[in-house]
Amino acid sequence: MASFEYKVVPFEGRIKSGQAVNEVSIQLQSAIAQYAVGGWEFYQLDEVDIAVEPGCLAGFLGAKVSYASYNQLIFRKGS
Fold first, then answer.
1. Which of 1, 14, 47, 55 is the one with CA 20 to 30 A from 20?
2. C-alpha distances in angstroms, 34 versus 8, 48, 60, 70?
3. Which pLDDT tens digit goes with each residue over 16-38?
4. Nearest CA among 20, 46, 42 for reference residue 31
5. DSSP 4-26
């Protein structure tokens, strides 16, 4: 059975108004290629949900936990 080492890095595609959506595909391809040079194989793109706790003052004023989702690129290489 093969064993792997994993690396997880955030990915956030960005476009300006008027740019084509495929610009994000180019950004994603570039990020994957950048890690491939270091021997990392692209494994998957996954979404991670994060609970964001309010700070002291916001909590005192009644703010509740908010939630955000972030894309994470997952790479692996054989050990």
1. 47
2. 13, 22, 44, 20
3. 888 888 899 999 999 999 999 99
4. 42
5. EEEEEEEE-----TT--THHHHH
* 76 neighbors 40 (Cβ within 8 angstroms): yes
State pTM to two decimals.
0.76
Going by C-alpha positions, the residue among 2, 3, 25 that lies closest to residue 13 is 25
29: left (phi over 0), alpha (psi -120 to 50) or beta: alpha
Count structural domains, the chain: 1
Residue range of the domain that includes 55: 4-78
How is residue 23 written in tokens?
């610009």
Return the amino acid letter for 4.
F
